[in-house]
Design goal:
Layout lengths: L1 E5 L3 H12 L3 E6 L15 E4 L5 H7 L6 E4 L4 H14 L4 E6 L5 H6 L3 E4 L4 H9 L6 E5 L2 E7 L9 H4 L5 E8 L2 E3 L12 E7 L3 H5 L5
Parallel strand pairs: 1-2, 1-4, 2-3, 4-5, 5-6
Antiparallel strand pairs: 7-8, 8-11, 9-10, 9-11
Helix pairs in contact: 1-5
Length: 213
């Protein structure tokens, strides 16, 4: 896929690198050239300095051939404008924006704009939207996100108390086969278990090792 990402902050750089590693053609736009330093060493796409709603910059980025467009700056108005230009002026089928301030959620909904709101899981959720997949993200409250995921082999045989993180990650509900239950500290996890829990921003990377892709 040909994908344009506007914004190369923490979310934008992570998203761009993930997409690039999967083999997509990625162009990243940011008004600050220094921001491109955040891109991972595995990123092999193109970077452009400029504004994500500037038509000249978008033309240079290949907007007319773009399959997907993601606006992920920390400015909601910029993200909204960029997605509206991509959708309405260039007819990009899939345009997704990061919603930084939940107060503006109604505006995004009224415009029919696809968006992702949150902290840690934003890049992953955006990528899954672009790939038309299913994300782990359920909801966000401050810097805590509710997540649902299937346990991978790394979780096999581990007790809940050895996986959970004090003040960082807590599992509330589990699904095993056809059985749904509330686990205890001594509940043993198995590959394929589906869990729902809460994870704080700083704990996500530790928790993600147990998530099936």
């Amino acid at each position: 896929m040909n994908i344009i990402v506007v914004g190369c902050g923490r979310v934008g750089s992570q998203l761009s690198t993930m997409l690039s590693v999967e083999g997509h053609n990625v162009v990243v736009i940011d008004r600050d050239e220094e921001a491109f330093r955040r891109l991972g060493s595995t990123f092999n796409g193109v970077t452009l300095k400029g504004l994500g709603f500037d038509e000249e910059i978008l033309e240079e980025a290949g907007i007319r051939e773009a399959d997907a467009f993601a606006a992920v700056t920390n400015l909601d108005n910029t993200n909204l404008m960029a997605c509206e230009v991509a959708r309405k002026l260039y007819g990009v089928r899939l345009a997704v924006a990061r919603l930084y301030n939940p107060i503006r959620e109604r505006t995004y909904q009224q415009l029919g704009l696809d968006y992702v709101c949150g902290t840690t899981l934003v890049a992953q959720t955006l990528m899954e939207k672009i790939k038309v997949g299913h994300g782990h993200h359920l909801n966000t409250l401050g810097d805590v996100e509710m997540v649902e995921f299937k346990c991978n082999a790394a979780a096999e045989g581990k007790k809940l108390k050895n996986v959970e993180i004090a003040h960082g990650f807590r599992i509330a509900v589990m699904l095993r086969g056809q059985s749904t239950f509330i686990p205890t500290d001594d509940t043993v996890l198995h590959t394929g278990d589906v869990v729902v829990g809460a994870v704080k921003d700083e704990a996500y990377l530790k928790v993600s090792r147990y998530m099936e892709e």
